[in-house]
Specification:
The chain is mainly alpha-helical and 144 residues long. Helix content is 50%, strand content 6%. It is built from six helices and two strands; from the N terminus they run ααααααββ. The chain has a two-stranded antiparallel sheet with strand order 1-2. α1 packs across α3, α1 packs across α6 and α3 packs across α4. The longest helix has 19 residues. The radius of gyration is 15 Å and the shape is globular.
Amino acid sequence: GSVSDALIGLHALTGCDSVSSFHGKGKKSGFNLAKIPRYCETMTELGTSFLPTDNLIRKCEAFVCALYGDRDITDVNEVRYRLFCKKGKNSSALPPCQDCLTLHIQRANYQAAIWKNSLVARLDYPSPVGKGWLFSGEEGLTVE
């Protein structure tokens, strides 16, 4: 696939109106990573269905590890720990923990699936509840 095929997934994962961004990690860093074939494939795969596979979640986690500067480690908790141990690292500069990242990936995947199906006249899409979001009668749809 080409980088242009990866843009929808990349935009959703790195932050958009409905999915949060990673503190201090802009679109340019993600775009540069998406030029690498394995990451391009991962971003292209985001949103191909409304539920991400476990394999896709692992590949997105590896992408986020690379986004935070470590292409050799694919466990975000390990990258988080290593960055934490570095002197002078502000906690806001750490990647999210694995549980939070999984929910983030679910939200990004759901949003990318909506965009990838935007030309379908009457899309019967599943509820976002359980895909990184919760529904509360008082607050409506909130981040899980």
